[in-house]
UniProtKB/TrEMBL annotation:
Annotated 6-phosphogluconate dehydrogenase NADP-binding domain residues: 6-165
InterPro entries: 6-PGluconate_DH-like_C_sf (IPR008927), 6PGD_dom2 (IPR013328), 6PGDH_NADP-bd (IPR006115), HIBADH-like_NADP-bd (IPR029154), HIBADH-related (IPR015815), NAD(P)-bd_dom_sf (IPR036291)
Gene3D superfamilies per the UniProt record, alphabetical: N-(1-d-carboxylethyl)-l-norvaline Dehydrogenase, domain 2 (1.10.1040.10), NAD(P)-binding Rossmann-like Domain (3.40.50.720)
Protein name in UniProt: NAD(P)-dependent oxidoreductase
Organism: Jiella pelagia
Keywords: NAD, Oxidoreductase
Domain 3-hydroxyisobutyrate dehydrogenase-like NAD-binding stretches: 168-280
Length: 293
């Protein structure tokens, strides 16, 4: 792996620790780029090289990782003027670690293939701490050949790297994973409101539920650590990001012709939270919204 030349664009909450783990554990040459100077400077101090822009990386590296806010940014960076499609050299492999709509993901792959550029989608799951610790779950869509090329690098940032199928299938799993999480958080918010209204101690309610069939990661993490403490910090996974991701689930529902009633409810609750002024708060803040009959 040390002979590889890697580029990494998008050094946000998840991107920076992912990049750092790959940089420090792989021994590969790495160029980095972000609009924010802070993470670039930190990674350069660890041995990375600052790139002028993403186009410059696409023209020189072997593998280009993208960890961007969403599909809009991925579309611009890859297909926009002076983007990866225009600047990337034949033989380049692009790995999109962003959460991106399935339809767009497959469109991007088809366009890049025309230029001899390989592509995989590799969105991530689990928490910011997991990104720091290198214990993410990464879901990959792409050919067997591309998967085997990128798997050792992704393994530096994850304890689980799963080949989910052809291009787009990594995004399918990630989007549905988030959809189920969002719907579970809605259910937890209802359980919390109903339990408290009925005179139940909230901590005892969730603790006892965790010993039964309602137990889940969402209960222990989003429920116990955020909802019970009424702690919804900015800088975590905000309501606006959750709304973006649930919109991708609804896009997938439209693409497949299957109605996603639970996702629609989750979207409606998040939209209400945003309207209440909670667009930047950690998305379980929707627990603060209580509707009376």
């Amino acid at each position: 792996m040390s002979a590889l030349h890697i580029g990494f664009a998008g050094l946000g909450v998840m991107g920076e620790p992912i990049c750092r783990n790959i940089l420090t554990k792989s021994g590969a040459k790495m160029q980095v780029f972000d609009l924010n100077a802070g993470p670039v400077e930190r990674l350069v101090a660890m041995g990375a090289v600052k790139a002028d822009d993403i186009a410059a990386m696409a023209a020189t590296v072997d593998i280009l990782f993208l960890s961007l806010p969403g599909g809009k940014q991925v579309e611009q960076v890859v297909l926009g003027d002076g983007g990866v499609l225009a600047s990337g050299r034949e033989g380049l492999t692009v790995v999109d670690m962003s959460t991106t709509p399935v339809g767009l993901t497959r469109q991007v792959e088809a366009k890049l293939a025309e230029r001899g550029i390989a592509f995989a989608d590799a969105p991530v799951a689990r928490t910011r701490q997991a990104a720091e610790d290198g214990t993410l779950s990464i879901m990959v869509g792409g050919s067997e050949k591309v998967f085997e090329t990128i798997r050792p690098l992704l393994a530096h940032a994850a304890s689980d790297v799963t080949h989910c199928g052809a291009v787009g299938c990594g995004q399918v799993v990630k989007i549905l994973n988030n959809m189920v999480l969002f719907e579970t958080v809605v259910a937890l918010s209802e359980a919390l409101a109903l339990g408290k209204a009925a005179g139940m101690d909230a901590d005892l309610l969730f603790d006892t539920m965790s010993k039964g069939s309602a137990d889940s990661f969402a209960l222990r993490n989003h429920g116990m650590k955020a909802m019970l403490k009424d702690a919804f910090p900015k800088g975590a996974f905000p309501t606006d990001y959750a709304l973006k991701d649930v919109s991708y689930a609804l896009d997938l529902a439209e693409l497949t012709g299957i109605k996603a009633h639970g996702a629609e409810l989750a979207r409606d609750r998040m939209e209400k939270a945003r309207a209440a002024g909670f667009s930047e708060e950690y998305f379980p803040v929707l627990a603060r919204l209580t509707d009376k009959t």
